[in-house]
Structures are given as C-alpha cells and as structure tokens.
What we know:
- By secondary structure, the protein is of the alpha+beta class.
- It has helices at residues 8-13, 54-60, 62-79; strands at 21-24, 28-32, 40-46, 85-87, 103-107.
- It has a 5-stranded antiparallel β-sheet with strand order 1-2-3-5-4, with helices on one face.
- Helix 2 packs across helix 3 (62-79).
Amino acid sequence: MTNAAESIFTKIINRDIPAEILFENDRVIAIRDIAPQAPVHLLVIPKVSDYSNVTELAAGDPELLAEIVATAHNLATLHANGEYRLVFNTGETVGQTVFHVHAHVLSGGLLESSLA
C-alpha cells in the first residue's frame, strides 16, 4: 500500500504534477484521467489524504463522500449528458493502485475492464 501523503493525487493537489483540472473547490478536485478506460473518464478526489478507500471515507466524513458524489453528478451533467458510472475501487486485488480515495466517473462505454 502506498502512503497517501505521497500519492500522485497529493502531488496534483499541491501542483507538483500537472493535470487537466475540471473542477476545484476547498474540499475536492476533479481531473481528467490520463489513462482513460472510457470515452469520458474523470476522477473526483478529496483534498485530504486521510482516507485510502471509500469505506474509510464513509465512516470518517460522510459529508465529504456526499460532496464527491454530487461533484461527480455535476461533472457527468457537463461532460456526459448526465449518464455515468461511479466507481470506487477498494483494494489491490480489484485494481486500486492509488491509496488516496477517489471516484471514477465513466461514460460512453468502457474501453478496458481495469480501473485503478
């Protein structure tokens, strides 16, 4: 498991790594995935690195989880006519490679089956 404080998402949030930022406020950031698994593949990421997966986030800050879901919906409305899949991976065996909780917003059909 990777230390969330050193994750690629923390580096994006801190502007150490560039990303195509589609939305940002004081609690979340949304970016376009650099290895898309669907024609529309966006990531919604909380700015805190306290939670490695959605279960931890739901237990620790359900309001932040609700904000992530609302942001995903708003992005899907703008980028995918409101039709989308919302995916949270939890664990290495299901493809989670970044252990800083994040939501995948997918639309337009999957290109491949694995989602980090």
